[in-house]
Amino acid sequence: MVLSKIFILCLAFFIGNTAYGQSNMDNNAFWNDANGRPLKINTGFRVEGTPFYNELYCLADVVMMNGRIYKGIKVKFNLADNNLIFVTNSGEEMAAASPVRSVTFHNYAENNIFRERVNLTSFSTALNQPGAEIYEVLVDTGLKLMKKIQVTYADAKPYNEATITRTYNRKEVLYALPSGPDTKAIKISRNANDLLPLFGDKQSEMKVYLRENKVNFKSDQDLQRIFEYYNSLKKG
């Protein structure tokens, strides 16, 4: 019994150290390959709102346009400037210059909502290219559910004040993308009347699901469950 416990502890220690070593290797490789440039921080104005998807650094898997994958990298994403930001060992904030295909956050928590996985991507070009359209992929198989996120800002100097106020505004638009070749994304609203036509010959079953589950259409998690249930019907 004692030997078993010792073996388990040793195994856990080995796995932990292996994971730590792998994480360090991925971090070092990412720092080298990201071709980071020093982040210029403008502090000459007061800020309202935020340009970031995540204010704090979060662990993520980063997929580059060349197909390389780096796991467990601490990053945050600026939606206004399309900057993927990371921190070096010396504590310097850098923006990745190499083209990034997608960023997937794991065990992401925001506003008391926990999500195992959050995926940001741009279907047309690199995620960190200026002006690229950013999508959060909520359901990524079958009938896909995506949320386009755009952050813009406006500067204003109130009368008799010396400081400029920069106000960030966030806009989100939902899209559905049917499976199959040459399909186009369909802009949708958060209501049953807009969603039901997407479900084709499964509309009757989906009406029952919506009625019995008292869906909150303002909730991304509820919308995810709707699409996942529909996809399960199509598989069945």
Q: What's the SSE blueprint?
A:
Layout: H1 2-33, E1 37-38, E2 45-48, E3 58-64, E4 69-78, E5 83-87, E6 93-95, E7 100-110, E8 113-121, E9 134-139, E10 144-156, E11 164-177, E12 186-188, H2 192-195, H3 203-213, H4 220-235
Could you explain how this protein is built, in words?
The protein starts with a helix and ends with a helix. Strands 1, 2, 3, 4, 5, 6, 7, 8, 9, 10, 11 and 12 form a 12-stranded mixed sheet that branches. The longest helix is centred in the first third of the chain and has 32 residues, at 2-33. Residues 5-22 have low confidence and may be disordered. It is built from 4 helices and 12 strands; from the N terminus they run αββββββββββββααα. It has 2 domains: 2-187, no CATH class; 189-236, no CATH class. With 236 residues, the chain is of the alpha+beta class.
| SSE-based structural type | alpha+beta
User: What profile does the largest beta sheet have?
Assistant: 12 strands, mixed
Shape: globular
- Helix percent reads 25-40%
Low-confidence stretches: 5-22
Q: How far do the termini sit from each other?
A: 47 Å
Mean pLDDT: 87
Number of helices: 4
- DSSP E strands, number: 12
Which properties best describe this structure?
single chain; 236 residues; alpha+beta; 2 domains; twelve-stranded mixed β-sheet; 12 strands
What is the structure about, briefly put?
This protein has about 240 residues and is of the alpha+beta class. The protein is built from 4 helices and 12 strands, in the order αββββββββββββααα.
